[in-house]
Amino acid sequence: MRIFTKLSAPLCLLFVFLCLKTAFSSSIHASYFSSTQLCSHEEAAALLQFKTSFSINNTFYNPYLCGTKIESWKEGIDCCSWDGVSCDNVTGHVIALDLNFDCLSGTFPSNSTLFLLKNLESLNLAYNDFRLSKIPPKINQFTRLKHLDISSSRFSSQVPAEIAHLLKLVSLDLSNNLYDDSPKLILETTTFKNLVHNLSEVREL
User: What is the DSSP pairing of strand 55-56 with strand 104-105?
Assistant: First the structure.
């Protein structure tokens, strides 16, 4: 009994020391990773530049349905935490952008910085007002894109032939870009045939 009493005090001290050391290490580890941004500076800058191209027009569509995702995009905050932005958990690259019903209004730039997001796999720009912009031919730079939705977004003119170069597409939605008083979004027969021929992965068109 006496031997146990003599050994218990040092063991207790050792146990307390190990607990404090573990807690301190965990605190340092958590602090380090919380201060480390996942999103790259280049991709964050590209998204912020894209944001400056548009204003919010909640009168074009139902104002009660309009989101404000893009308004959460602030410099100095990890872009992977921005609304509508999803990143790869390992590389930190932006892989999905969902601005569906964000009621963006403005001309879509032909050289948009959005095309700098080379790892993008999903892009949803539905229900925005791009003021009869043409779909830029540079859309073929999204070589990893699997899902593209630009329905009800007021794009016009011909769908560029380059869209058939998105060989990994699984779903493509160009619907509801028809207007009685303005040019329509036109998918020419040749482009459509190339889509069907080239995009072997497409499940929804």
Answer: antiparallel
